[in-house]
Specification:
Length: 256
């Protein structure tokens, strides 16, 4: 179908746009569709604002990793997500799209862990928790390698990887809050980017832990429609996270 649209577009670009218009608006307006569009839009807006703010000289160096993270996140959704393929009737990997989707999502979990761990390592003061974070990331990487060697990575989305990632990152998030609110210096949260970024990460990961546990249970009982609804909650949680990221990017840093 993608080749068919491409061929038409060479001679009738107006008709191609009409077909894309019909393919989009013929999709039923479900909570899943709304959440997916909101997720992609929020990701794109956060990426644009991140590029505008995170590389300024006055911005903390740890902000520079977030546009990279947001770009990769958006690229993963465009390449592997089902929504883009349905609208444009095109799959990059063709008949292997379902397999490639699972491979990409599983690898993305490892990438996300590295990004969040690096950021938290920069904003934490506790040397003990920083060493613990490094140790947990190394253990997770070893576990991931064994998973690759023993299992077909494209067979399914490994929810246990996501849960482990979430638990590893939530520990330093809680430590950050303790350090922030028990410090002797007064805190102006409106001028503290790290607070909003950590809150975005913590909110998202704390949300998806029960979702991942419920997903495995529902799949095992054939409740595939309910799993899609859970995916909608995941997308809306990401939207909230992107809003918190944007707030963190645009904080006015108090100059000493």
């Amino acid at each position: 179908m993608g080749t068919f649209l491409t061929a038409i577009g060479c001679f009738h670009p107006v008709r191609t746009s009409q077909l894309l218009y019909l393919s989009f608006f013929s999709m039923p307006l479900t909570i899943y569709l709304i959440s997916t569009i909101s997720n992609l839009t929020g990701n794109l807006v956060a990426l644009i604002i991140g590029l505008l703010y995170c590389y300024r000289r006055s911005s903390p160096p740890y902000l520079r990793i977030f546009p990279v993270y947001l770009f990769v996140s958006l690229a993963v959704e465009v390449i592997a997500g089902a929504f883009i393929g349905k609208v444009f009737h095109f799959s990059i990997f063709g008949d292997h799209q379902p397999y490639a989707k699972k491979v990409i999502y599983n690898l993305y979990t490892l990438f996300e862990l590295y990004v969040f761990a690096w950021f938290l390592f920069q904003v934490l003061r506790s040397s003990l928790i920083r060493r613990l974070l490094i140790a947990l990331v190394i253990l997770f990487s070893i576990y991931f390698i064994f998973y690759l060697l023993q299992t077909d990575i494209g067979k399914k989305n490994n929810m246990s990887l996501i849960v482990l990632e979430s638990l590893i990152i939530i520990i330093p998030c809680l430590t950050f809050y303790r350090e922030l609110f028990t410090g002797k210096e007064p805190i102006d949260l409106l001028k503290t980017p790290s607070f909003w970024l950590v809150t975005g990460i913590f909110f998202y990961l704390a949300t998806i832990i029960p979702l991942c546990a419920a997903t495995d249970y529902m799949f095992s009982h054939g409740l595939t429609k309910a799993v899609r609804n859970l995916a909608s909650i995941n997308s809306f949680a990401l939207v909230v996270t992107y809003l918190l990221f944007i707030k963190g990017f645009t904080c006015r840093i108090k100059k000493s």
